[in-house]
UniProtKB/TrEMBL annotation:
Domain DM2: 165-242
Protein name: Putative upstream activation factor subunit spp27
Renumbered residue ranges of the record's region Disordered: 59-167
Pfam families: DEK_C, SWIB
Length: 249
């Protein structure tokens, strides 16, 4: 059989592509189909067949693309038509600004309060209450002023170094004076010195450091062997006397 012409090969390839699955089609498969159709070996014309195949594939793809564009345009026209029709229907029920006038505003209620009418007795009572209130406020202010002045005077005395009851010198009993080394001392100094003595003599209770064990000298003052150190003042106050009270007696 004579060799097929290029136009005949092109026509046959176009027929093959018309009904073929392009996703699974290859140039080798097309060439075999051509050889079966022409009953010839086309190995020597492989490049020619591949070239024609590529050209025909391009035509098929272009034709498919144009068809897709035509379909898209058709769908777009239908959507536009539907939109226009819907718009014309909605226009018939659309309210104009005149139709949408706001409801009448509610009138604000105006309250006309009647003036209060009181008698002479009621007027006198109210005036008396106001006068009493003014005197009470004035009295409270005077009391607050006196209290502030008194507090200020007390604070000034403290700043000037005036001794108060807790830091003024007191008369000590002979037993406590023997421990302190002096006959007069303030309460605060007595407590401070007693803490030092407990520490210096190592009298803290090893079982409970909040207590101390009295030696013979401290036993004369405290009267008990074991004393809670933080509560020592309740024992010491019997040995501390105010000199003013002693002079009066």
């Amino acid at each position: 059989m004579a060799e097929p012409s290029s136009s005949l090969i092109r026509k046959e390839i176009a027929n093959i592509l018309k009904d073929a699955d392009l996703s699974s089609l290859s140039s080798k498969k097309v060439r075999k189909l051509l050889e079966e159709s022409f009953k010839l070996d086309l190995s020597s014309r492989k490049k020619e067949v591949d070239k024609v195949l590529m050209e025909e594939l391009a035509k098929v793809e272009k034709a498919g693309g144009d068809a897709d564009e035509d379909e898209d345009e058709r769908q777009e026209e239908e959507k536009t038509k539907e939109t226009v029709e819907d718009g014309s229907q909605s226009d018939s029920s659309f309210e104009t600004p005149e139709d949408m006038s706001p409801p009448e505003s509610k009138k604000q209620k105006v309250s006309h309060k009647q003036p209060e009418i009181i008698g002479d007795e009621e007027l006198a009572r109210r005036l008396q209450e106001e006068d009493t209130g003014r005197r009470t406020r004035h009295g409270n202010q005077r009391h607050a002023h006196k209290k502030a002045k008194k507090s200020k005077t007390k604070s000034e005395r403290s700043k000037k170094g005036v001794k108060t009851g807790y830091n003024s010198d007191m008369v000590l009993s002979p037993e406590l004076a023997e421990i302190m080394g002096t006959e007069k001392m303030s309460r605060s100094e007595v407590v401070k010195r007693m803490w030092q003595i407990v520490k210096e003599r190592e009298l803290a209770d090893p079982k409970n450091k909040q207590f101390h064990i009295c030696d013979d000298q401290l036993l004369k003052v405290f009267g008990t062997k074991r004393v809670r150190t933080f509560s020592m003042m309740k024992y010491l106050k019997r040995h501390i006397k105010d000199p003013d009270l002693l002079s009066d007696s």
